[in-house]
Amino acid sequence: MPSKFKDSYPELPKMYDVDAFIVAERLRFGRLPIRAIQNQIKELDKAIESFMSLFPNGLTGIPGIGSVYSAGPLAEIGDITRFQKHASLAKYGDLAWGKHQSGGFEAANTKMILTGNKYLKYYLLEAANKARMHDAEFKRFYQSKFKEVPKHQHKRALALTARKLVRLVYSLLSSNRLYTPPTV
User: What is the pLDDT of residue 72?
Assistant: First the structure.
């Protein structure tokens, strides 16, 4: 690799290893069989885990959210102090609903806004889905929201669970704490 590529990441020299790995794999293979792609995914997951060991954070302690699922939101959020409260982080992550009102009327069924970071939204929804499978509190919350409406149950419940996760993520990152599960 030319030295220019390596020097483009002066503050994180270990990142070069991950980028070099990705570029080498892309150059080495043209069309890949599924088994080779699965092996690449495993290798990338290992590379992400080793990279994330440089950044200890409280998100990996949440059941179901490991190094790979915490890397995405951390990369997209960046510095948490950019956000004054969890609602602004949720809005940045496209997990906010628009208002539809006129006079005294306010619509009950409104659409989510689509002006934020779509990648952060993806990571938060995936992380919320994993958290609801592995954490009793998130599972209970998801099921209660699932039962509230007759239409779009999963989408709505998952979005609300992701919004709950945003509150937790904001709290953990802004206070620089590790996640401790609630005691029963």
Answer: 86
